[in-house]
Specification:
About 55% of the residues lie in helices and about 10% in strands. The protein has about 270 residues and is α+β, with helices and mostly antiparallel strands. It is globular.
């Protein structure tokens, strides 16, 4: 298994990319609290349709979100926001992290069986981070944020999630092939190669469905779109009918991630 970076190595790498992080962070280090002065409100204030929907996120009684963590818009924003949200949820619940680790180990085994040595490195690094969450070695959001900025993890985490979703889609051809054909692809392989495995390829409804089912997580997306309704439109991708341990459908046993979607981009929402 690949060796985990030391604290000194993490600090050195983190300092090397401070300028880039400050200019356009891959994942913002802090949560921007919602209100008229928050960054996204300032950016959307001249778009009356989207702005009204945005404000509903913290004023509507059935939403009441407290803030947002911004994700860089580089085509990987869905995977980066969803993966950070999953890790952050597990950070708060070591028992749940231990259960989730079992799923990740199973996914890693499937990937290495199907793809061989080409995927071993990023599976090892992904497993290492989940093991650190389960053991409590990584115990703060600041440590998690730093781990996501370790140079190899910048891509390895994305590759792990993307290849796991690709593998899931290929293994469930009866469910996904009709939709893939409707998107203009002849085969699942061609779709996955271009739209899932490739870094920078954006994610739409099909990828969200597959991601939620593959990892057994519940993904809620609040959409800022051009519809005539005055509030953000909510859509939930339930992932699984049962919890991670397969013994109940208690919502407390399921990792939940909430995202904000505005045309072409995802960010991470917080209650």
């Amino acid at each position: 298994m690949a060796c985990a970076p030391t604290v000194e190595e993490l600090n050195a790498q983190f300092e090397d990319i401070q300028e880039e992080i400050t200019a356009d962070p891959l994942i913002s280090p802090s949560v921007d609290q919602f209100g008229d002065d928050c960054r996204i409100a300032q950016n959307l204030k001249d778009n009356h349709m989207l702005y009204a929907k945005l404000v509903s996120l913290w004023t509507s009684s059935d939403k009441m979100y407290s803030g947002i963590r911004y994700i860089r818009g580089d085509g990987n924003c869905f995977y980066r926001s969803a993966s950070f949200g999953i890790h952050e949820a597990l950070l708060r619940d070591r028992a749940l992290a231990s259960e989730f680790l079992k799923r990740v180990k199973d996914l890693s085994s499937r990937l290495t069986n199907d793809y061989g040595s080409a995927v071993e490195d990023f599976c090892d690094y992904a497993l290492d981070l989940f093991e650190r969450l389960a053991s409590g070695t990584c115990s703060t959001v600041e440590e998690l944020h730093r781990a996501f900025y370790w140079r190899k993890l910048l891509k390895y985490v994305l590759y792990f999630y993307r290849y796991a979703v690709s593998n899931y889609i290929r293994a469930h051809s009866d469910e996904f092939l009709p939709f893939v054909v409707g998107l203009g692809y002849d085969t699942l392989q061609a779709f996955c190669y271009s739209e899932v495995e490739a870094l920078g390829s954006e994610s739409d409804h099909l990828q969200l469905v597959a991601f939620a089912q593959c990892f057994g997580v519940r993904i809620t997306v609040e959409y800022l779109d051009c519809s005539e309704v005055e509030s953000a439109t909510r859509h939930t991708f339930p992932g699984v009918e049962k919890s991670i341990n397969g013994t109940s459908d208690n919502v407390n046993d399921v990792v939940e991630v909430t995202l904000l979607y505005r045309p072409g981009h995802y960010d991470l929402l917080y209650k």
